[in-house]
Design brief:
Layout: H1 2-18, H2 22-28, E1 36-43, E2 46-53, E3 56-62, H3 71-85, H4 88-104, H5 109-117, H6 127-135, H7 138-142, H8 146-174, H9 181-202, H10 205-208, H11 219-237, H12 239-287, E4 290-291, H13 293-302, H14 305-314, H15 318-366, H16 370-387, E5 391-392, H17 396-435, H18 454-472, H19 476-480
Parallel strand pairs: 4-5
Antiparallel strand pairs: 1-2, 2-3
Amino acid sequence: MRAYFLFIITLLAFSALAHSTPAQVAKSYTEPDEQFRLEKITADGNNYWIVVIDGSKELLIDSSDNLVDDKGEIERIFTTNLIEESEVSVKTDAIRDGIDAFNASQYPNRTDCERITGVDKKECYDKESCIKACYAVPLCAMQIRDDLIDSILEWNTLRAEVDSAIQNAKNKADALNGEDADKYRDVKNAIQNMIDKMEEFENANLYSIAYCAPMEIDYDAAEDAAANADSVWMVLGSYDDVVAEANELHKNMNERVEYFSNRAEMYQNVYSQVLNLYNEVSNEYEKQRFTEDEIDEMLSDASNYTSIMKQLKSSGRYREAIDAGNEYVQELNAMKNRIKVYSVQYEVLKNKADDALERIEKAKLKVKSRSSKHKLDGLKAEINRMINFKIDAKNISSYSERIDEINDEVKTIVANAVLEEEEESQDAMEDAEQTVKEEVEVDSGEEKEELKISDVVLKSLCNALHSIGEVLGVDVAGMLGVCG
């Protein structure tokens, strides 16, 4: 018994779950941060629900709680609803009935007038034919005169014009199909022409001379028919807009259904992209010989990106998680490019530093004084402090400028050292020239030559100028015109 009871409960629960509602269907295609409402419409006696999500028409659900996803069917439902809601069929019938009522209101007075003027028996299209028609009726024949005949001719002409106008309106009304807006505009104009012709007919002189009894025309019926034609014309004028609205809903539905089918995969793809890109950027930054506060801060924030995405996904807010992930990818790529730019700048700085260190080592070979070597060692230590420790990326430019200055200082130190050493050498040579003169005798048979210490001094000076020229990168001796 207990098992049977549990079976019944389970069956009822399953039945309740199996029978969904439009709201449940709508909810299955929305996320927690989206607001939706249902708009009920009817078409051909069937109920449908438009799901409006955050102000946009996104889904159409039928009475069986299924999505209507066929484009043509959605268009048919929307346009049918437009026609039915606007009572196009009812108004179309009313247009025809109004024209008939307007036409019928001429009678029986018009028939009586046709009879007593004889136009129902004989033709009346000019004065002579109208006289014959009048003679066919004793009452008319007894009163025959020119003004009466002229009035009968006018009346009969206007009668034909009214009949033509009424028939034209009827023909156009019979052609109405509840779809073509232009046809309703045309019938409205035809009804107005019918009214105008009838007003002229009623003002015929035959009524002024009281020969015929006035008709009791139902102008209200004609005006109502014209109003209905105008109303339907305006409704059908929005037909294309309704079709466009149906197509827009179909497009939105396809996008939403496809999104919900693929959102888990979309999320995983962008999540993996964020995670991999973060690891790549973080590892690349760790290898660099520079740091920057902004990059440190951005990387600190980026370490939480995947956690934020997980939280959004866990709460069912896939779209928000995916959008956030796409933004994170952009930010991480921007960070990656930022690091790359600094990396290139640092590489240039490192190359300049290596060149400067090599230049200093060469310079140390050219100088002899302890003070010059000490200065060069100080510049070397300054450069090493730049490149042997991580530096602030914002200082790369200023460090590069400083190395340019150091290169100039090295040139100056070497130049000054060489000059000082040469001066000392020259002073020593001059002292030697004052105190020592060597006379070298060269046995040439009859002559002897005296070689002076000044030649040795000149050679030493030229060597110094060449050394300075190598440091400065110019031909100093050539510029001075010595040591040819």
